[in-house]
Amino acid sequence: MTPRVAVVMGTRPEIIKLAPVVAALGPAASPLATGQHWDADLTDVFFAGVGMPRPVQPLRGVGGRDRAGQVAAMLTGLTDWFRTDRPDAVVVQGDTNSANAGAQAAHHLGIPVVHVEAGLRSFDRAMPEEVNRLVIGAVADVHCAATRGNAEHLLRAGTPASAVHVTGNTIVEATRRALPAPAVRAAVQAAHGVVAGQYVLATVHRPENTDDPERLRALLQALDLLGLPVLLPLHPRTRAALTAAGAVLPPAVRGTGPVDHATFLALAAGARLLVSDSGGVQEEVTVLGKPLVVVRNSTERPEAVDAGFAELTGPEGVLPAARRLLRPGWPEELSRRPSPFGDGRAAERVAALTLAAAGHDGAGVLTGALAVG
């Protein structure tokens, strides 16, 4: 019999990163949407973009709550759902409230939990995501670490070595599949009024940047000083923060609505530089071979920094970091470097480990998984 695997997703990055896993699991996959992201621009367009029908959404009223309210509502709702329609395993991805609730609900019911992108650590508990990572790490049964560094974090925390596997990150194959052909990229860039190699692509959405009006203004001013036009797709949170702060985009910065994944990648591929506080963008630039200024207090993805693709800084350091990343010859060097996040076969490894956890022999399709135990 084909096992049933619930694949829990609630945010745009989870849709993108779990789509290859859902495809690799085939008929065993039962995607579930929590409704953490409820805006159609952050959900429906991304399901369509990865070719996934909109999953079953057993929960209502999750989006828009504060973090505690979201986790509580999702934990209760997913527990009820799993109790009624029990899967053989549950897959969660990353460090969202949805992943936290999905992992706990499955664990409390004795259902095996597979954590995709396990072992990331910023060691900054002021980040809500860091607490989610710690909780999921405590209850997961199978830890699919993107890198050996992530695996080492888990081992040092006492996770059994037999439960930790280095699979790579599914963002590599997701990015490769979603990146439009060169002609389409050129058309997308033209439609957005930018010329390849002559603009900056920026994203801002993390609370540490949007919830502090002075920091948000400082970041916008830094973007204005880069000497190139800046394209800024606006996350709903950022747009609301700008309105609340009475802030106006400076002359060099042009805001747009949210864009789907393929459009974002087309714009990223043509940008001379990216500036972002996104975790996923830190991974995507390593696949695209692009330089990135990460505007955050800390990062759980030091691999992008260590490999030379990114620099971590606050708003005050954006301009000097950009100058270093754009020094003569360096962008060309980055375009030739391999991504530190894997070889593009993570999804098949995750799927095999998941089928094994669900009681199905996945060894026959486990090609190249790197168990550290």
TrEMBL record:
UDP-N-acetylglucosamine 2-epimerase domain boundaries: 32-352
Signal peptide positions on this chain: none
GO molecular function term, any single one: isomerase activity
Pfam families: Epimerase_2
InterPro entries registered for this protein in UniProt: UDP_GlcNAc_Epimerase_2_dom, WecB-like
Keywords linked to the UniProt accession: Isomerase
Entries under NCBIfam families matching the protein: wecB
Family membership: Belongs to the UDP-N-acetylglucosamine 2-epimerase family.
Protein name: UDP-N-acetylglucosamine 2-epimerase (Non-hydrolysing)
Originating organism: Klenkia taihuensis
Lineage, opening ranks: Bacteria, Bacillati, Actinomycetota, Actinomycetes, Geodermatophilales
